[in-house]
Design a protein that fits this description.
By secondary structure, the protein is of the alpha+beta class. It contains nine helices and 16 strands. The relative contact order is 0.08.
Amino acid sequence: MSKLKKQIKANAAAVASALLLSATVSNTSAQEKTGILGMDHVGINVPDMEQAVNFFTDVLGFSAVTSLGPIPLDDTWKKNNHMNPKTGPVSFKMVKVGTGANIELFEYQDNKGSLQQPGGDDIGASHMAFYTNDINKSVAYLKSKGVQFLGEPFLMPSGDTEGETWVYFVTPWGSKMELVSYPNGKGYEKKNPATILWSPKDAVKTSSEKSDSKPLSENEIKSLVEGHLAIWNERDLKKRQVLMAKIYADNIEMVDSHFIAVGHQEINGFVDGLQQKNPHAKFSHIKAIDVNHNIARLYWQNGTPEKPDTVTGMDLFVFENGKAVKLYVFVDGKK
């Protein structure tokens, strides 16, 4: 009976894998056929265009770019869009929101539609979420501007969204919106998923990063790789943190065959554990560092002075804006 159960489970797992692969291929094929590249904008109706524009520009710091209208709407359009036939012309305003989709604001003159905001469980209810690297700082600033919040920031403790902090707030006209932050990534990213969700944090560049966007020289990259070795050999936490800030990007992703570590804190934890297991071991490179544009390759060994090559391997780096943003670790094994 146990063999039969195992076979049933194996067959079920195979079917599930096949269905998942089929769905992935189908979704990719459908997107290619439609020609869709990504999200362009999100539309939202507002009762007062001037009030909405002031909120998005003066409070949230976005930029109003284009305007159109007022445009009269014919009876057929109103009927097809389930609108009150007595509602007047519509005006549009497109707002640029940092990095990501734009927001299109709609204002209807003499609006005869419902003025009640949908409840959280109403069909069609929606919200927009804005990413911030420091959610507490953002909340404090918006509160100083009189923005009403629906609670306090909440950190997700486990699951796919582990590491994400979020909080809802409302606009002056009652629309629900959200602040969200996960500077060290989300839980699901550590499981080597085939697809990573898009995030503004991966696309945005600060003004300082933009000014430092010139390509690194080969010697500069080699110096950073040497600094990487110094990080892994440094046993003083404070000194190691200083080195990390110079060598690694804040959201650096270290990809090992068994796990993914994101950010300084997680890599620090791994280095600490490694040093505790091998208190006398040290990293050193086996041969010269290879550099190809913004990519570098380091062949390393780790061990004691008596046996410096107890473990060997190779690290592959990707550099952007003067720091390492990706670190792929390949371990050969113990000798």
